[in-house]
Amino acid sequence: MTVRALAVAAALAVTVTSLEAQKTTAVHPGTGGSPHVRTEWVLDGANISIEYGRPALKGRTIGTDVAPFGQVWRTGADEATTLKTDKMVMFGSMHLAPGTYTLYTLPTAQGWQLIVNKQTGQWGTVYDQKQDAGRAPMTIGKTPAPVEELTISIDDTPAGGTLRIEWGTVRATIAMSTM
């Protein structure tokens, strides 16, 4: 086998491994019509899951009609978005011990912040800042094509991963790693 063929085979193996590491399961249709999913990943040996409602834009505008700028947003629909990890993870410079957390974001015209909160099991609009485990700035960009339903993903990277939140033409990302 040539060196080039070995390189292609190795690249395919990495791609297949990355694709197999993500599993999405429907949880329920949602009380307001937004489907709820649980997406699970294995990132550098850590089992990570995010359960969230997937609202549709339906012609609304991010920053005004939905996810208003300057207000903490539940980052989903209905119940609060839940993150579970069985190993320590870092979002930017924010360290999180293994456990269950709620994810919020603070969108502004200048950028977004990821908010990780220790309170769990609440309705998405019930937010207690005193329960914050931490906040970290996210990088904002544009999606290649509009995304009608909110989508939360983790992309595998050489340095760990990237948490990616996409909705409409907004892409908010933050580097993450496991320990």
Explain this structure.
This protein is mainly β. It has one domain (23-178). It has 1 helix and 10 strands. It has a 10-stranded antiparallel β-sheet with strand order 1-2-3-4-7-8-9-10-5-6, with no helix packed on it. A hairpin with a 7-residue loop joins strand 1 (23-28) and strand 2. The longest helix is centred in the N-terminal third of the chain and has 18 residues, at 3-20. The chain is globular, with a radius of gyration of 17 Å. The relative contact order is 0.18.
Keywords:
mainly beta; globular; 10-stranded antiparallel sheet; disordered N terminus; 10 strands; 10% helix; 179 residues
- Helix and strand content put the structural class at mainly beta
H/I helix tally: 1
Poorly predicted spans = 1-20
* Tally of distinct domains: 1
What is the general shape? globular
Share of helix, binned: 10-25%
Tell me what portion of residues adopts beta-strand conformation: over 45%
Strand order of the largest sheet: 1-2-3-4-7-8-9-10-5-6
Short overview:
The protein has 179 residues and is mainly β. It has one helix and ten strands. It has one helix spanning 3-20; strands spanning 23-28, 36-43, 46-53, 81-85, 89-91, 94-96, 99-107, 112-117, 132-157, 160-178.
List strands and helices in order, with pairings.
Layout: H1 3-20, E1 23-28, E2 36-43, E3 46-53, E4 81-85, E5 89-91, E6 94-96, E7 99-107, E8 112-117, E9 132-157, E10 160-178
Antiparallel strand pairs: 1-2, 2-3, 3-4, 4-7, 5-6, 5-10, 7-8, 8-9, 9-10
